[in-house]
Amino acid sequence: MNTNSSRGPARATAVRNGAVDLAVFEQGNPDGPTVVLVHGWPDTHRLWDHVVPLLADRFRVISYDTRGAGRSSVPTSVSDYRLELLATDLLAVVDAVSPDEAVHVLAHDWGSLEAWEAVCSPGAVGRIASFTSTSGWCFDHLGHWMRRTLRNPTPSGVGKVLAQFAASFYAVLFHVPVVPEFVTGKVIAPRWPRFLALFDRMDPALALPSATIARDAANGIKRYRANTLDRLGRPRLRRTDVPVQLLVNTRDKAVLPFGFEETAHWAADLRRTEVPSGHWSPLSHAPDVARHTADFVVDVISRSAADGPAAAV
C-alpha cells in the first residue's frame, strides 16, 4: 500500500468490473477535485508514489492496479486484455469513486492507451473532465498517422515512421511465443532499477518495483498481443471532446514525438507540453508531471465554471 502521501496512508478498496476485481487506492484531499491515475507496463499503482504527495494537498487522488497487475485480478486469456475491456475498467473505477462528478485522469504508457480508448468512447465527456497523457498514444491515431504518411511518402515522413518502428520493435518481438515472457519476467523484471538506469538514464533509487513485477511484466505481454497489430493495421476513427493534455517526454526512447503530429485532428481541445525526461517521467520527473497536471486541471475547471458549479481548488 502506498503510504507516502502528506494526507496519510492510502485507503484500499476494490471495484468489480464483470469478472475482474480492481484494487483501488484513495489518498489526498477528500474535498478536492478527483484525479484518477492509471499506470502502464510493467508497473502497478506504485508508479505514482512520487507524484501523489505533490497532488495530495489539493486533490483527491485515486490510483488502481490495472487488470493483470498488482493486487487486481489476473485474467489468463489474451482476449481479456483488449483495449475496449481495459477502458471499461477505468470507467468502472470512475463510476465507483465519483458517481456524481466527472474526474480528471492522468495516465502513463499503457495506462494512456487505455485512457485514450475511454475518452474516445460515447459518454466519456460526462464522466472524464480532462485527460493528461504521458508516454502513450491512441493506437488508432498512431495507425492513421502511419498510414497517411506512407501513402504520401516524403523522406522526412518515412524517416519518422521508420524511427518509431525501430523504437517499438520490441512490440513485434512480444508476439513471439514464450520467449518474451521469460525475458521480461525472469531477466529484466528482477533487475528493474538497473534497467531503468540504463534505458532512461535515471537514478535507480527512484524505481518503485512492486513485489509482483516479474509476474506483471510477463503477463503484460498479453496487452501487446491483444491490440498492437489489430489497432495499427485497422485503425478506427476515434475522436474526443474531453480536454486533453499531452506531456511529451523529449528524451523518450519508446514513444517518439512524431506520433502526436496529428492528435489535434482527433482531440478538439488539446494542449501539448514538453517534459525533458525519458519514458518513465512519473519516476524521474514527478514534480513536472504533477505541476503540469495540476495546472491543466485548474485550467479546465476554470474554463468550465461558466457552464455550472465547479469544485474549488
Care to give the gist of this entry?
This protein has helices at residues 52-55, 83-97, 110-119, 139-151, 155-167, 169-173, 179-188, 192-200, 213-219, 221-233, 263-266, 281-284, 286-304, and strands spanning 11-17, 20-28, 34-38, 60-64, 103-108, 128-134, 244-249, 270-275.
Tell me what you see in this structure.
It is a single chain. The protein has an eight-stranded mixed β-sheet with strand order 1-2-4-3-5-6-7-8, sandwiched between helices. Mean pLDDT is 93; it is low at 1-5. By secondary structure, the protein is of the alpha/beta class. It starts with 10 loop residues before the first strand and ends in a 9-residue tail after the last helix. It is globular, with a radius of gyration of 18 Å. 40% of the residues lie in helices and 16% in strands. The chain has helices at 52-55, 83-97, 110-119, 139-151, 155-167, 169-173, 179-188, 192-200, 213-219, 221-233, 263-266, 281-284, 286-304; strands at residues 11-17, 20-28, 34-38, 60-64, 103-108, 128-134, 244-249, 270-275. Helix 2 crosses helix 3 (110-119), helix 4 (139-151) crosses helix 10 (221-233) and helix 7 (179-188) packs antiparallel against helix 9 (213-219). Helix 3 links the parallel strand 5 and strand 6 (128-134). It is built from 13 helices and eight strands.
